[in-house]
TrEMBL record, chain A:
Keywords: Membrane, Transmembrane, Transmembrane helix. Coiled coil: none annotated. It comes from Paractinoplanes atraurantiacus. InterPro entries: DUF6297 (IPR046264). This is ABC-2 type transport system permease protein.
From TrEMBL, chain B:
Keywords: ATP-binding, Nucleotide-binding, Transport. One of its GO terms (molecular function) is ATP binding. Residues 4-211 form the ABC transporter domain. PANTHER family: ABC TRANSPORTER ATP-BINDING PROTEIN ALBC-RELATED. It comes from Paractinoplanes atraurantiacus. This is ABC transporter. It comes from the Bacteria. SUPFAM superfamilies: P-loop containing nucleoside triphosphate hydrolases (SSF52540). Gene3D superfamilies: P-loop containing nucleotide triphosphate hydrolases.
């Protein structure tokens, strides 16, 4: 088969596209981009300095190692999720199927991915060094460590690219990296409970670092060259998948519509699963039984939720109300594990009509499983805080259980939020025009967490927890969820929307 | 009481009138099949009777009441005029079982496996519906519609994507449904299928007082 050279095709596409743009459109986009970064950087430079280079190192050796595992594990998982090699949707439709060189087609994508991985890797390196290294380090060492971070990012990119092109071992590496990430998280939690000294004094000197970094750099360059040679072997279906992800991400960002992304992730998840039909548990109401089945089919997510119950512990240095807010948000996220069905019904009530259920019956039944998940998660998180953190005495697990109805109402409300409404009036602010649709959509769901105010106040005040507070929270939660049910549903209507 | 009564129905999309002064009666326990070219408004008529589309004027009653969004209406009426959606993480068979359970049927006695077999879906019982072909999805909807109890079936071209044998089977099932007291309103392109199901055939033109 003859191969058509790609460069002239690309040049022609670029020329034709730019002919349709206004003169100077690219320059003005660039100007706005740089200005935005400058403004945000100017506004947040103190916080950024705190994140990347605090005045004094403030993390122990364990925390440093855990942060490394956590950050780079996350980078790898993100690279895998987004490809890492992807094409624009148009290129995937028209150029992937054309007789052009596959390698030159994918090269720009590899270049961008490599730049992103290296920059993020370097930034992570700076931050980790900034938090752990003694301030006696000289500039050379810092530069070498930063370069090391960038190289680590590149290595992860190369593994991810090979996994994208390769066979089943890719899934095994993904699991391994998830474990690395989880280990990093666990290490951070252990570190906050141990109060280890902030004393990493023995950093390798520049004489050791130079050959090490140089050696790794040589290896990376060689493997990169091999990767470029083998680029054409990446299977088309993997590239198409990644291109769809990239396209959906673009739609989500451009249309400010997060549901595109969540729907895609959910569709992919189930498309990749092999299921066996089982009998629905017969003693429970039918929709409760269905929600239980859905939840039990997401065991891996349940394991992550159990892990995440330790997350509020990491906020030990933050103000107490932030810890409280994290517990409330966590209960919402835990409850959302079981709201996929109510999201389906809210989008289109075809199945509810087929089931012949009223919106009141449906939502009431759909509240149970999210409620149990939220209650168990909050109880777990508050117990962890009670045992390992610095909560005052009291039956915190009971307060967690009392948060169940709050998490359930919030999660079901979130699932019923639907698409972003773009017909709402924009707000004019001194910073520019703010579209209200995405804002209103984003707070639908979390707004119901206000029902957890008694718990939030209790955690924020830091007083010993009394059973009365637990009772108040339970009553407020149940009454609130009940009011939500009667306010937004009807026994005489199938549709979940009015 | 008639199952469906339509009098002087006007409906359309925006400025385009699709149904002009349409009259139709489906007696309880009997079936009516509306035939006609694509675009004459068969599906729009079925959507109006299902209460899924707003009408401009006229009157529609289903079992003496308004077609509507109430759970009672949807306990009596099953329609296939809408494209289906599916629950995440639920197999084809489990969708059927869920619907049967919601109507108080014993899944073991409802004949789910036989229904899937009859519609050529037995091998796909463990598949999630989004992974099925469009024809298989339509057959799954039809299988579930016929499994659950109802008093009125509103079917839009149920013979589509069925082979000859499948058509004969479904026509037989519809005849049984009416023999059991159910009423049927359907749109179809296949006269033989309509005759085999025992439904009375009528054209869109004959329903419209203006055109007729």
């Amino acid at each position: 088969m003859t191969t058509v050279p790609l460069a002239p095709v690309r040049r022609w596409i670029l020329r034709t596209q730019s002919a349709h743009r206004e003169r100077g459109a690219t320059l003005s986009s660039l100007y706005i981009g740089v200005l935005t970064v400058a403004i945000i950087g100017g506004m947040l430079h103190r916080q950024l300095a705190e994140v990347f280079w605090p005045p004094h190192p403030d993390a122990s050796g364990l925390a440093g190692a855990s942060l490394t595992a956590l950050c780079y594990g996350l980078l790898y998982l993100a690279l895998r999720r987004f490809g890492p090699l992807a094409l624009s949707r148009a290129a995937a439709s028209w150029l992937l199927t054309a007789p052009v060189s596959r390698r030159s087609l994918l090269m720009p994508s590899l270049r961008i991915a490599a730049a992103v991985a290296a920059v993020i890797g370097a930034l992570m390196g700076v931050a980790i060094v900034g938090h752990t290294a003694p301030r006696t380090l000289i500039g050379d060492e810092i530069a070498l460590l930063t370069a090391g971070g960038a190289l680590l990012g590149l290595i992860l990119l190369l593994i991810a690219t090979a996994a994208q092109a390769g066979g089943r071992w890719g899934a095994a590496v993904d699991t391994l990296m998830s474990l690395v990430f989880a280990a990093g998280f666990a290490g951070l939690v252990i570190d906050t409970t141990l109060d280890e000294p902030v004393a990493v004094t023995a950093w390798p000197p520049a004489e050791t670092l130079v050959p090490l970094v140089a050696g790794v750099a040589v290896v990376v360059v060689v493997i990169l060259a091999l990767a470029v040679r083998g680029l054409a072997r990446t299977p088309s279906d993997h590239i198409l998948d990644a291109s769809r992800t990239a396209g959906t991400l673009f739609d989500t960002a451009f249309g400010m519509e997060p549901s595109f992304l969540t729907d895609m992730i959910e569709r992919r998840y189930w498309a990749g699963r092999r299921l066996r039909s089982i009998r629905l548990p017969s003693r429970l109401p039918v929709l409760v039984a269905q929600d239980i089945m859905l939840t039990l089919r997401r065991r891996r997510r349940l394991v992550w939720l159990v892990f995440a119950a330790a997350f509020p512990l990491l906020l030990g240095n933050a103000p107490a109300w932030i810890v409280g807010a994290a517990v409330l948000l966590g209960s919402l996220i835990a409850a959302m594990t079981a709201t996929g069905n109510v999201r389906t019904d809210a989008g289109n009530a075809v199945l509810l009509r087929l089931l012949g259920l009223s919106s009141r019956q449906a939502v009431l039944q759909r509240l149970w499983v999210p409620g149990v998940l939220a209650a168990l998660w909050s109880a777990l998180a508050l117990t962890a805080l009670d045992l390992l953190g610095d909560l005052p005495s009291g039956p915190w697990w009971a307060l967690g259980l009392a948060l169940g109805p709050v998490g359930a109402a919030a999660a079901v409300h979130r699932a019923r939020a639907g698409f972003v409404r773009n017909d709402l009036l924009p707000l004019d602010t001194p910073m520019g025009t703010l579209s209200t649709g995405p804002l209103v959509n984003a707070v639908m769901g979390p707004d119901m967490l206000l029902l957890g105010l008694p718990a939030l106040v209790e955690i924020a005040q830091g007083n010993p927890l009394s059973p009365t507070t637990v009772l108040v929270q339970a009553v407020v939660g149940v009454i609130g969820a009940r009011a939500y049910l009667s306010g937004t549903t009807d026994t005489n209507r199938t549709e979940l929307h009015r | 009481m008639e199952a469906v009564e339509v009098e002087g129905l006007h409906a359309g999309y925006g400025a385009t009138p699709v149904l002009v002064d349409v009259n139709l009666t489906v007696p309880a326990g009997e079936g009516v099949c509306v035939v006609g070219e694509n675009g004459v408004g068969k599906s729009t008529l079925l959507r109006c009777v299902s209460g899924l589309q707003e009408i401009e004027s006229g009157r529609i009653t289903v079992f003496g009441g308004d077609p509507g969004a109430t759970p009672e209406f949807w306990r009596a009426v099953v329609t296939t005029v809408e494209p289906p959606t599916w629950y995440p993480g639920l197999t084809a068979r489990e969708h059927a079982e869920l619907v049967c359970r919601a109507h108080g049927q014993d899944p073991a006695e409802a004949g789910i496996d036989e229904a899937l077999e009859r519609f050529g879906l037995a091998k796909h019982a463990d598949a999630i519906p989004p992974s099925l072909s469009s024809g298989q999805k339509q057959r799954l909807v039809l299988a579930i519609a016929l499994l659950r109890p109802s008093s009125l079936l509103i079917l839009d071209e149920p013979e589509q994507r069925l082979d000859r044998e499948g058509r004969a089977d479904v026509a037989g099932l519809l005849a049984d449904y009416m023999a059991g007291g159910g009423s049927l309103l359907m749109a179809s392109h296949d006269d033989d299928f309509a005759i085999a199901s025992g439904a009375a055939i009528t054209t869109m033109e004959s329903l419209s007082a203006v055109a007729g």
